[in-house]
Design a protein that fits this description.
By secondary structure, the chain is mainly α. Among the domains are: 47 residues, Ubiquitin-like (UB roll), CATH 3.10.20; 94 residues, Type II secretion system (T2SS), domain F (Receptor-associated Protein, Up-down Bundle), CATH 1.20.81; 103 residues, Up-down Bundle (Receptor-associated Protein). It is built from 17 helices and three strands. A three-stranded antiparallel beta sheet has the order 2-1-3. About 2% of the residues have low confidence.
Length: 402
C-alpha cells in the first residue's frame, strides 16, 4: 500500500486536498471517483503528514467515532461501510480522510486493527489492542462501545486537569508580568526621589531598588532569555528522559501533587487493564499496554519493572507492592480481585473510585489555588507599596521632629 496526495474538485465545485492509501495510481484514481471527486492533481507521497500534534485525534472526537462505529457494527453493517458512513458525518475533513484511508485498507482484506496500526499518531497502542481483542472475541461492537466509555472518561479527566490549572496559571502569569513592569518602569522613577535626601533608606526600600535594577538590566534580560532557549534546546534535541524521570519522581514526593497525579494515572491504568483483560488480552501484554496510559514517567517505569515479576509467576498485587508510591488501598483491592477471581470487575470499581477521588481533589485544589495565588500576589504588591511608603513616613517623622 502506498500513500498518495491529491487535489480534487467535488460536485459543488469546491477544491479538496488530502491523502489516501492505495495499491497504485489507478486504484487511487478509482477511489477518488468512488468519492465523487474529480482529480486535479494526484501523486504518490514519499512520506505522510507526520506532525503528530496535527495528525492526532482528541479523546472526545475518538470517543464519538468509536460510539458511532459501535452502533453501526452492532446493527450488522460491515466495518468498511461503517467507516465510510462515519467519515461522511464527521465535521473534520482531516479525520474524515483518515477514516477513509482505514476503510480502503479494510476493503483490501485487512482487519480493522491492522488498518488502524498504520496511523499510530491517531490510534495508539491501547486503542488498536482493544480493537484486536474485539475482533478475536467476535464482539467488536461491544468492545467499541466500552472503548468509547473509556475514552470519554479520559477526555473528562483531561478537562478536569486543564480546568484546575489553566485559570490560576493565567492569573499568576499576568500578575507577575504586571509586577515586573512596575518594578522596571514605575518603581525606579518613584524611589529615585528619595536618593536625594542623603539619608539611609529602609532595608525594604533598598531591596526593592536592588531588585528593580536587576530586572531592568540588559544583562539579566539577555541571560534569562538565553537560559530559556538553552533549556528548550536541551529538552528538544538531547536525551531528556533521565531529567524527566527525576523530575517526575520529585513530583511524587510533594504531598498534595502526589495524590493528584496518582489518582489520575492509576485510574487510567486500572480502567485500561480491566478492559484489556475483558478482551482476553494476556496479562503481561495488558500490563505493558496499560502502563502506556500513565503520564508520570517514574510511575510508568516502576510499574513496567514490577510487571516483569508477573512473568516469573508472581501475582499482580505482589509485584505492584514493590512500587512504593502506589497507595496500599489499590494493592489491597487488586489482591482481593485476584483471590475472588473477579479481577476485571474489581479493577473497574477501583478505576471509578480513583476517578471520583481525583475529581474531588481537583475541585478542592481549584478552590484553594485561586485564593492562594491572589494572596501571594497581594503580599508582593503590599511589599512594593510599603517599600515606597516607608521613606515618606521616615521623612514625615524627621520633619515633625525638627
Amino acid at each position: 500500500m502506498a500513500s498518495f496526495s491529491y487535489k480534487a474538485m467535488d460536485q459543488k465545485g469546491e477544491t479538496e486536498k488530502g491523502f489516501l492509501v492505495a495499491e497504485n495510481l489507478d486504484d487511487a484514481q478509482n477511489e477518488l471517483k468512488n468519492r465523487k471527486l474529480i482529480p486535479l492533481k494526484l501523486k504518490q507521497s514519499n512520506k505522510r503528514f507526520n506532525f503528530s500534534f496535527f495528525s492526532s485525534i482528541g479523546y472526545s472526537k475518538l470517543s464519538l467515532i468509536s460510539r458511532q462505529l459501535s452502533t453501526l457494527v452492532n446493527s450488522g453493517i460491515p466495518v468498511d461501510q461503517a467507516l465510510d458512513s462515519v467519515s461522511e458525518q464527521i465535521d473534520s475533513p482531516r479525520i474524515g480522510n483518515k477514516l477513509r484511508q482505514v476503510s480502503l485498507k479494510v476493503k483490501s482484506g485487512y482487519k480493522l486493527s491492522e488498518s488502524l496500526e498504520d496511523h499510530p499518531e491517531s490510534f495508539d497502542r491501547l486503542y488498536c489492542s482493544l480493537i484486536k481483542a474485539g475482533e478475536s472475541s467476535g464482539e467488536l461492537g461491544v468492545i467499541l462501545e466500552k472503548t468509547s466509555d473509556l475514552l470519554e472518561k479520559r477526555a473528562n479527566m483531561t478537562q478536569e486537569i486543564t480546568g484546575a490549572l489553566v485559570y490560576p496559571l493565567i492569573l499568576f502569569s499576568v500578575a507577575i508580568g504586571i509586577i515586573s513592569l512596575l518594578l522596571i518602569y514605575v518603581v525606579p522613577d518613584v524611589v529615585s526621589q528619595f536618593t536625594t535626601l542623603n539619608r539611609d533608606l529602609p532595608l525594604l526600600t533598598k531591596s526593592l531598588i536592588f531588585l528593580s535594577e536587576i530586572l531592568a538590566s540588559s544583562f539579566f534580560q539577555i541571560s534569562l532569555f538565553s537560559s530559556i532557549f538553552l533549556i528548550f534546546l536541551s529538552l528538544r534535541y538531547f536525551d531528556s528522559k533521565k531529567i524527566k524521570l527525576k523530575f517526575d519522581k520529585f513530583l511524587l514526593k510533594i504531598p498534595v501533587i502526589k495524590n493528584f497525579l496518582l489518582d489520575a494515572d492509576l485510574s487510567r491504568f486500572t480502567s485500561s487493564l480491566s478492559l484489556l483483560r475483558l478482551g482476553n488480552v494476556s496479562i503481561l501484554d495488558a500490563l505493558q499496554i496499560s502502563s502506556d496510559t500513565i503520564s508520570n514517567s517514574y510511575l510508568r517505569s516502576s510499574i513496567n519493572n514490577a510487571s516483569m515479576k508477573v512473568a516469573e509467576g508472581e501475582s499482580i498485587a505482589k509485584s505492584l507492592e514493590k512500587v512504593n508510591v502506589i497507595p496500599p488501598l489499590v494493592i489491597q483491592m487488586i489482591q482481593n480481585g485476584e483471590k475472588s477471581g473477579k479481577l476485571e470487575e474489581m479493577l473497574s470499581k477501583l478505576s471509578d473510585y480513583l476517578e471520583t477521588r481525583f475529581k474531588n481533589s481537583s475541585k478542592i485544589a481549584m478552590n484553594l489555588l485561586e485564593p492562594l495565588v491572589i494572596i501571594i500576589l497581594g503580599v508582593f504588591v503590599a511589599l512594593i507599596v510599603l517599600a515606597i511608603l516607608l521613606p515618606l513616613i521616615q521623612l514625615n517623622t524627621l520633619t515633625t521632629t525638627l
